[in-house]
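Changelog-linked ticket: FE2/S2 (inorganic) cluster example.
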Amino acid sequence: MSNSVRIELRPYGRSIEVERGTPLRDVLYIYGVEFPCGGRGRCKRCRVQAVEGNLSITPDEAAILSDEEREQGWRLACRSLAQEPVVLQLEQFQVPILADHSAFDFEPRPGFGVAVDLGTTTVVAQLVDLETGRVRACDTALNPQAAYGSDIMTRTQLALQEAGRQKLAAVVRQGIGALVGRVIATAGLEQAPIDTVVLVGNTVMHHLFCELDVEPLARVPFESDHDGLQEFQASDLRWEVRGDPRVRFLPCLGGFVGSDLLAGILATRMHERDEPSLLIDLGTNGEIVVGNAERMLCASTAAGPAFEAGGIEMGMQATTGAIDQVTVVDGGLICHTIADAAPRGICGSGLVDAVAAGLELGWVEPSGRLEEGRKILNLSGPVHLTQGDLRQLQLAKGAIAAGIRILLDRWGAGPHEVSRVNLAGAFGNYVNRESARRIGLIDFPDESVDPVGNSALLGAKLTLFAKDRAAFEYRDVLARVEHVSLASDRSFQQIFVREVRFPD
Ligand code: FES
């Protein structure tokens, strides 16, 4: 037996190799894990969760952790030893998950419903009183499929095999079933029947939850015939929910544009306006919709993981110690880190800020090259950007900017005619608009750019109020949206190459 074991740290995104039997406390402090009670096993603030593999439990841990915590694999890092390979979720670095608490108009009806936004990384659920429109409970979780690959392509590859498809459907159904159970319990409604559950998500999440064939999503032209509304009874999914509610996964808009964007259209009401507006979800798979009350076009573009700081040498998720803001002061850089902790890496919003600042100071050239003589862009402490990091951001922003340009051209509007640019999702919520414009990512006036938070969840909530299928507002929207395949647009490559440059 090898004398070393591998520990994967989430959401930090690092793997370390340690000698078997090493106390976790000896290695985790290097990664910024704090031990508030000095490791005496009293505060529980050093909790880690073994999401894969096992950490044995000591009697004093068993005394302080609840039955549920123990069953879910929670342990105290100050008490645990690394005896076997394990994937650890570090509680101190939990990723903040964007929910939705905006006011909305609705037609009251009796009953309760649950809206779920199923993201590639995270899941959020809200229990809504359909009579009052009040959110009675909200809870979040990490997508349990992450144990089988953090990105959608890895999971799609796994789901090409029958066994992989079944596995991915089973874990996500079980995870969401538990989440739905938790919001019901939090609201104290265990005895009340639930009327309906509505899920939204990107196209791959839709297919994986519904256990559909993903093969069409793995080859050109990336169009699936089964991307419509999918319906189940809760009991079909092995969810024990009073009332055995209907569970609906809303339809995708086409290609890789999922029901998260369909719900975003409902939430932003862009389908009711006369003037054209844009809805953009900036992620590994950038999703874009342009249009008005008459006509809408949508497309997706493979931006790569740079906006989530993936593929960036010192990239990390937006958690403790990530540089999330960079500003220019007196010819130098001032970096802010999340929780004011020592800098450990950089997240997506920090990356956009840092490159915008580098352009401002002339340290980064419009071509994307670092100025002559500069090998890296030093930010704060050990955190820096390399030439390769700049390239990753250029490719991501080039793909999004080219997608926007082509959709606007096809729709027949110039950028100055767009009345509103709605930025959906976490990155769109946190990115600095001025920096996004400086790097040429969102080249619209600040006053027209509007972060709309978790519009997918809001759109799912709005759908809960429909009495039956005929009342679904999204049916009108679907009839007006046309999907554009950017992969087959002959001008894409040319525009993309032009958009890869930063503005002068
Ligand atoms: S540091 Fe307090 S319980 Fe571990």
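Closing comment: Example verified and attached. The radius of gyration is 23 Å. The CA atoms of residues 123 and 141 lie 5 Å apart.
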